[in-house]
Amino acid sequence: MVYAVVRAGGRQEKVEVGTVVVLDRIAADENGNIELAPVLLVDGDTITSDAQSLAKVKVTAEVVRDLRGPKIVIQKFKNKTGYKKRQGHRSELTRVKITSIK
Asked: Which GO terms describe its cellular component (predicted)?
């Protein structure tokens, strides 16, 4: 069993070949592929975590689609002062499928 822990969008995700992961918006190349930086690689019984060995490892993924997250409503209110503020936010996301770990 081969899997890797990759760094993407300020978080770490455990991925295998064929895994579909939702990440923060990432710009892909002209073919729709991206490369993710591995933090840890597990290949059967061997675990690789040092930076020199991980520099040789490539985790590639293809972009399935770009999407947006759910709407988050931010409301601020102060009693007896007439202060009200309402704000919304939607995260820009990318759904990717892991194609290879080499």
From this structure: ribosome
d(CA 75, CA 60): 40
Dihedral, CA atoms, 22, 23, 26, 29, nearest 10 degrees? -50
Torsion of CA 44, 100, 35, 92, to 10 degrees: -100
- CA-angle at 92, arms to 89 and 95, nearest 5°: 140
Dump pLDDT digits (tens) for 88-97.
999 999 999 9
The span from the first CA to the last CA of the chain, in angstroms, equals 13
Cα gap 36→1, rounded to integer Å: 19
